[in-house]
Specification:
Layout (H helix, E strand, L loop, with lengths): L10 E2 L5 H4 L4 H4 L4 E4 L7 E11 L10 E6 L5 E5 L4 E5 L5 E5 L1 E2 L5 E2 L5 E4 L2 E6 L4 E6 L5 E6 L15 E9 L2 E7 L17 E8 L10 E4 L3 E6 L2 E6 L6 E5 L5 E5 L4 E5 L5 E6 L9 H11 L2 H13 L12 E6 L5 E6 L5 E7 L5 E8 L3 E6 L2 E7 L6 E12 L1
Parallel strand pairs: 2-23, 8-9
Antiparallel strand pairs: 1-2, 3-30, 4-5, 5-6, 6-7, 10-11, 11-12, 12-13, 14-15, 15-16, 16-17, 18-19, 20-21, 21-22, 22-23, 24-25, 25-26, 26-27, 28-29, 29-30
Length: about 400
C-alpha cells in the first residue's frame, strides 16, 4: 500500500485575485465548498507503468468477446465473455481458474451480460436485456440472487411519472445509483421531439428496490448530431458533445463530472454533496477533420461511414468549438482519482492522478487505444487489441510512483 505525505498546493479559493477569477466559470463561483487548484501546478511524483501480463486466448483456454471486467482485493480478475455468456476467472498470477454462469433467463443466467463489478465479498453483473443484476459470491462464485431493477416506490416521486430507468451503477452490495429519463423521440417530425433536450435524474436505490434519496444530481442525457444525408435523416451520439462521468469509491463515495470542464463533484454514500474539485483547463480547438479521422480508427467500416456522414453534414451551429476537457474518470482502492484529459495530440490522453481532495499526485500520457478501465492493488488494467488475433484482451501493468 502506497501512502503519500500531505503536500501543500497552491489553491485558488473564494477570495482569490480578480485575475484568477477571470479563469473561473460563473457556475463554479456560485457553488459552495469548491477548491480551485492552480492549472500550473507541477506534480510531485513521476509515475512508471510496466507491462506485466495479459489475459487472453491460449492453447488451453478459448474465450469469446471480452466484455466488462473487475478485480478483487486478492488480485483475481473476472472477465465477461459476451459471446459465450460466461464469466472467466484468473488468479493474481494470470493463471486461468475457471468459468461460471451461462446464457439463459433463469436465476444467475444472462441474455446480455453488461457491467461487472466486485463490491466487497460479492460480484455483480448488470444484464440490460433482462433488466436485472445477478449477484454471486466472490469467494465461492455461487449464485446469490437476481435483483429486478424496477423501483417499488417510484409512484412516491411525482417527477418520475412517465420516466424510465436509463442508467444503473452498482455502488455497493446493497446500493444502486439509478438514472431516470423521458423516452427518446429523435424524429424531428414527432410532437415530442427531444433529441438534445432530455436530462437524466440520478437517485440512490436499495437492493430491494426502494428509492431512498432526492435526486443526487441531474445531468444532460443523450447528446447527438443529426443531418440529412442523401435524403435520409440520421442521428448519432458523439462523446465530443460532452458526457457525464460517474464513479464510486469502495466506501460508496460518489464522484461526478461533466466532460466540458475539469470539475468534479463529490457526494457521500447518502447522496449528500460534500465538495467540488476544479482545475482551469485549456481545451483544444475542435475540427470536423480530426473528429472524422478518429472515427475511422475507433469503429468498423460500416459504422464509420454512417457516423462520418453525420459529422460531415451536420449544421455548423451544432458543431462544438472545442473538444471536451475530460474523457474518463476512475477511482482506485486507495481513493485516488484517475482522470484522463484530452490534449492536442489525438493519439494519447493525459491522465492526472489526484488525491481524494483533489491535490495533484502525478501526470502521464497514455495511448488512447489502450483503454484504462480498472486501477486496483497498485495495478493498472487496460483493454487492448491483440496484434496477432485482432481480438480485445485485458492487459495488466504494475504502477510505481517516484518523487520528483
Amino acid at each position: 500500500m502506497i501512502r503519500f505525505p500531505l503536500f501543500i498546493f497552491l489553491m485558488l479559493i473564494y477570495g482569490c485575485s480578480p485575475a484568477d477569477n477571470a479563469e473561473i466559470p460563473d457556475f463554479i463561483k456560485e457553488l459552495e465548498n469548491i477548491t480551485v487548484f492552480s492549472s500550473n501546478e507541477e506534480p510531485p511524483f513521476e509515475i512508471k507503468i510496466n507491462r506485466e501480463l495479459s489475459y487472453s486466448n491460449s492453447d488451453e483456454v478459448i474465450t469469446g468477446t471480452t466484455g466488462s471486467f473487475d478485480v478483487d482485493e486478492k488480485g483475481s480478475i473476472y472477465i465477461i465473455d459476451r459471446q459465450l455468456k460466461r464469466i472467466h476467472q484468473y488468479d493474481s498470477n494470470g493463471k486461468y481458474i475457471l468459468e461460471f454462469a451461462r446464457e439463459g433467463s433463469g436465476p444467475g443466467e444472462f441474455r446480455f451480460p453488461g457491467r461487472l463489478s466486485v463490491n466487497g465479498d460479492q460480484l455483480s453483473v448488470y444484464d440490460p436485456a433482462l433488466f436485472r443484476v445477478n449477484f454471486f459470491s466472490a469467494d465461492s462464485l455461487k449464485f446469490i440472487e437476481s435483483v429486478k431493477l424496477q423501483p417499488r416506490n417510484k409512484k412516491d416521486f411525482k417527477k418520475l411519472d412517465g420516466q424510465n430507468v436509463s442508467y444503473i451503477s452498482v455502488i455497493s452490495d446493497s446500493l444502486f445509483l439509478t438514472g431516470f429519463s423521458d423516452p427518446l423521440y429523435p424524429d424531428p417530425s414527432h410532437q415530442n421531439y427531444n433529441l438534445n433536450t432530455r436530462t437524466i435524474s440520478y437517485y440512490l436505490m436499495t437492493r430491494n428496490g426502494h428509492i431512498i434519496s432526492a435526486p443526487v444530481f441531474e445531468q444532460p442525457a443523450y447528446r447527438a448530431l443529426s443531418a440529412v444525408v442523401q435524403g435520409q435523416y440520421r442521428f448519432t451520439q458523439f462523446e465530443f458533445l460532452g458526457k457525464t462521468l460517474i464513479t464510486a469509491s469502495e466506501n460508496s463515495q460518489l464522484y461526478m463530472a461533466q466532460t466540458d470542464h475539469f470539475f468534479i463533484r463529490v457526494y457521500d454514500a447518502h447522496g449528500r454533496y460534500l465538495h467540488g474539485i476544479y482545475y482551469p483547463y485549456n481545451k483544444s480547438v475542435f475540427t470536423r477533420e480530426e473528429a472524422i479521422q478518429i472515427e475511422t480508427v475507433d469503429f468498423e467500416e460500416g459504422v464509420t461511414d454512417w457516423r462520418v456522414s453525420v459529422i460531415r453534414y451536420s449544421a455548423d451551429e451544432d458543431i462544438p468549438e472545442t473538444w471536451p476537457a475530460l474523457n474518463n474518470m476512475l477511482v482506485d482502492d486507495e481513493n485516488r482519482l484517475w482522470v484522463s484529459t484530452i490534449v492536442s495530440d489525438r493519439d494519447v490522453y493525459e491522465w492526472w492522478v489526484l488525491q481524494d481532495k483533489g491535490e495533484l499526485i502525478a501526470k502521464f500520457r497514455w495511448p488512447r487505444y489502450k483503454e484504462i478501465e480498472v486501477v486496483k492493488n497498485n495495478k493498472l488494467y487496460t483493454r487492448e487489441t491483440d496484434g496477432e488475433t485482432g481480438l480485445k484482451q485485458v492487459v495488466r501493468y504494475g504502477i510505481e510512483l517516484e518523487a520528483i
